[in-house]
TrEMBL record:
<keyword id="KW-0011">Acute phase</keyword>
<feature type="domain" description="Pentraxin (PTX)">
    <location>
        <begin position="3"/>
        <end position="202"/>
    </location>
</feature>
<comment type="similarity">
    <text>Belongs to the pentraxin family.</text>
</comment>
<comment type="subunit">
    <text>Homopentamer. Pentaxin (or pentraxin) have a discoid arrangement of 5 non-covalently bound subunits.</text>
</comment>
<dbReference type="GO" id="GO:0001849">
    <property type="term" value="F:complement component C1q complex binding"/>
</dbReference>
<dbReference type="Pfam" id="PF00354">
    <property type="entry name" value="Pentaxin"/>
</dbReference>
<dbReference type="GO" id="GO:0005615">
    <property type="term" value="C:extracellular space"/>
</dbReference>
<feature type="disulfide bond">
    <location>
        <begin position="34"/>
        <end position="93"/>
    </location>
</feature>
<keyword id="KW-0964">Secreted</keyword>
<dbReference type="InterPro" id="IPR001759">
    <property type="entry name" value="PTX_dom"/>
</dbReference>
<keyword id="KW-0732">Signal</keyword>
<keyword id="KW-1015">Disulfide bond</keyword>
<dbReference type="InterPro" id="IPR051005">
    <property type="entry name" value="Pentraxin_domain"/>
</dbReference>
<keyword id="KW-0479">Metal-binding</keyword>
<dbReference type="InterPro" id="IPR013320">
    <property type="entry name" value="ConA-like_dom_sf"/>
</dbReference>
<dbReference type="InterPro" id="IPR030476">
    <property type="entry name" value="Pentaxin_CS"/>
</dbReference>
<keyword id="KW-0106">Calcium</keyword>
Length: 202
């Protein structure tokens, strides 16, 4: 149970990462991924990387610069431009549904304009899911200059699109529906220089 805990990625650049294990019964037609990050990096960095053998950027949350997030599904991406952070925690949720190809992006409990991405696509179930590195091959192929340095917390993955109420609940750390990956019952393995610490503040 990682409640009120964080992963601290201590080095910059870093070869460290955290492997997450999810029980995926079948490919994903819909999903929502949420997490909280705290960093002073200005270079590109990966937050959440879900790769299959067929596609290394099956699901990817990537931040090329402080004013931008990229959300990948099946190797294609859409860009969400944001105001540059004030050096605080940022909570992001990204959701996608195959039927409409609609990609939603929420930052700190507020939705951004929706975009179109990979309508009709299916996300593979046999996945390597990593925090802190971007996979250029299944479970590997890292570029340290895309690595994450800082603190990560509240990682979740659902096989549904969350409602606006649940998106806001995720931001406020309220009760959430059962997830494929849930912060309070996370199955994970640390690889390299990552430390689990208590959150310094709310």
């Amino acid at each position: 149970d990682l409640y009120r805990k964080v992963f601290v990625f201590r080095k910059d650049p870093s070869d460290a990462y955290v492997v997450l294990r999810a029980e995926l019964e079948q490919p994903l037609q819909n999903f929502t991924v949420c997490l909280r990050s705290y960093t002073d990096l200005t270079r590109p960095h990966s937050l959440f990387s879900y790769a299959t053998k067929a596609q290394d950027n099956e699901i990817l949350l990537f931040k090329p610069k402080p004013s931008e997030y990229r959300f990948y599904v099946g190797g294609k991406f859409v860009t969400f431009r944001i105001p540059e952070g004030r050096g605080d925690w940022e909570h992001v949720c990204a959701s996608w549904e195959s039927a409409t190809g609609i990609a939603e992006f929420w930052l700190n409990g507020k939705p951004w304009p929706r975009k179109g991405l990979q309508r009709g696509y299916t996300v593979g179930a046999e996945a390597a899911i990593l925090l802190g590195q971007e996979q250029d091959a299944f479970g590997g192929g890292f570029d340290v200059y895309n690595s994450f340095s800082g603190e990560l917390a509240d990682v979740h993955l659902w096989d549904t699109g969350l409602s606006p109420e649940k998106m806001r609940a995720a931001y406020q750390s309220l009760r959430l529906p059962p997830a494929l990956l849930a912060w309070k019952s996370l199955s994970y393995e640390v690889k390299g220089d990552v430390v689990v610490k208590s959150r310094l503040r709310e």
